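Entry 12.
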Amino acid sequence: MNKNIIALTALLILCGLSAELTGQSTTVPIKVRVKDVARIAGDDETYTLTGYGVVAGLNNTGDSDKNLIQRTISNLMQNFNIIVSETDIKAQNSAAVMVTATIRGSKRKGDLVEANVSSIGDARSLLGGVLLLTPVLGADAETWGIAQGPITTGGFSFGTGQNAAGGNEVIKNHPTSGMLTNGVKLLRDVGSTYNLSDVLIYNLREPDFTSAVNLANSINKKFFGVAIAQDDATIKVRVPNEYREEDRVTSFISEIEQLYFESDSTAKVVFNEKTGTIVMGAEVRVSSAAVSHGNLFVSIKSVQGVSQPSPFSTQGTTQVINDTQTTVKEEKTAVFELPNITTVGELVRVLNALGVTSRDIIVIFHCLRSAGALHAELESI
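Predicted 3D structure (tokens):
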């Protein structure tokens, strides 16, 4: 063990003893804003809208499946009192598409909502196309909005295509889906109205009992006795009389959103073994433990040679010979002691001093948890 690691170990032991003597955590609490970590119940609802329509104006890159698009265009023309036989329709410049939109939170009648347009036939590209007037429906099968406008694809497809002679084609990104530039125009109000509410329910996005109590206390410091933490995720807030009588519930919500409180969380280590990414929470602690981690390297080298008979020999044949050489090398690693009550910063410095890789750290963490020395949850993503 080199002198730097020995010095680092002594420093960490002193830090651990200091934390034990004071009985305090070395982590500084961080205050967060209410609106960043909590939401009002009902304001998080998600509504999905779906519609079926036609994109016109394509440059011969539309659907070749004539049954679907021809029938769709024929039905569409009937709305304009034009009767056209399906077999008489040329549809290469049109494509059948699905329009999807997601509404989060509150929206009002006339608002524009971002929408996606995706081909459901065999169109090669929606570049330059315009979505014709399309009703979009909610989960109740009622019309919630209308969609119409030019399509933005962010890609292109030019060439003869795979089905044509030669099959020459140049494609960038994904030209068979895109965004509706003007979005979906809503025909109704969506979301909650709070002006008539006497009680507001706030939900923490990351449930925690300590955070819930701290949030309620922060609200009560400004509005005495109006908040109570019901559980680890729910805080009930009573709207004061003066705000209800003056119809200022919106102002009350705004003032609560700007309050700060100390947020807490469970100690956790999150890792992604595929990428070797590790994220450790500030409250991660490691009790005293001895760690020894070494690597075993196995190298297999195969060399091909040629064996051939002597000159002027009348016997034997020329043959290829494989010469395989296997080498095993195991690193000699000393046992390293982790001091008690190691914080995240201290733990990172120790692991860096050991020279271990991120994937080695994942294995070490699993072993520490099995030994009861790691006081944190392990989560793989």
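Annotation: The chain has three domains: 3-26+268-380, 31-42+200-262, 46-186. The longest helix spans residues 3-22.
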